[in-house]
Amino acid sequence: MSKLIRPALVMLVLMTAITGVLYPLVTTGLAQVLFPSQANGSLITKDGKTVGSSLIGQSFTESRYFWGRPSVTTPMANNGASSTGSNQGPTNPALTDAVKQRIDALRAADPGNNAPVPVDLVTASGSGLDPEISPAAAQYQMMRVAKARGLDAAQVQKLVTEATSGRQLGMLGESRVNVLQLNLALDALQPH
pTM of this prediction? Predict the structure, then answer.
């Protein structure tokens, strides 16, 4: 029996050292050298203060800001420690009610806007943390933001265009607009 226990314990210690210490140290070191921004959370700073991450959405509710996708994380919206979708299917009455409430909120914030509401403004992403919206969602909100800030629509359109990222590698995914970065660009143009 002792012939079996000793090699098992040696293997346990060895594998713990390799997979629990050495591998994480090497991976973390390589990430810090090759991708330092991403390894540190893709943090966005303004005036030397961290204001968010380009990878995690934030909740904006003022008319002067572009709004991101709804978040269903708990106990608060955009909670990185609770990344999850709602798991509500298209026939779930709770999802239907939530979408109607979100549409009503968008219409109340911009009563003159009769355009169809882009789906990403009323449905949460699978992670509940999506930091980006579609260019259509940004266009839908553009006049509300311009009016709330007293800006010319062309100025806001220019910022939306500059904040729009194309498909990755020219073919993967869809064009998208990072909401936090767009709102920070608006604040830089006209501080609140």
Answer: 0.80
